[in-house]
Amino acid sequence: MPRLLIKYPNKPSLIFEFSESITIGRDENCTLILPIPAVSREHARIHIIGEDEAIIEDLGAQNGILLNGEKLK
Predict the structure, then answer these.
(1) DSSP readout, 6-69?
(2) 44-71 burial string, b = 16+ CB within 10 Å, else e?
(3) pTM here?
(4) Number of neighbours of residue 24 by Cβ within 10 angstroms
(5) Do 57 and 43 meet the contact criterion of CB atoms below 8 Å apart?
(6) How far apart are CA 28 and CA 41, in angstroms?
């Protein structure tokens, strides 16, 4: 099962497990809600492709997407 490790400033880390595609953002309709000003209302979508593969899609987020501290192109 895919997992995301979410690191908040000054808070404990959180592990989020999911078994299907998810939407990430501040909006209450997102699967994973991140109440952080730098996160767009609908920031990204993660598509599950197979057992060991996923694709992250930027939904037009102003601040882009960071993966392991690196900004994705």
Answers:
(1) E--TTS--EEEE-SS-EEEESSTTSSEE---TTS-TT-EEEEEEETTEEEEEE-S-TT--EETT
(2) bbbeeeeeeeeeeeeeebeeebeeeeee
(3) 0.85
(4) 24
(5) no
(6) 8
Q: What letter represents residue 69's amino acid?
A: G
6 burial class (0-12, 13-18, 19+ CB within 10 angstroms)?
middle
9 CB neighbour count, 10 Å cutoff: 5
- Name the one residue in this structure whose structure tokens are 């979508």: 45
What pLDDT, in 10s, does the model give residues 19-67?
Answer: 899 999 999 999 999 988 989 999 999 999 987 788 999 998 888 998 7
Tokens coding 30: 């997102």
- How far, in Å, CA of 27 to CA of 37, rounded? 11
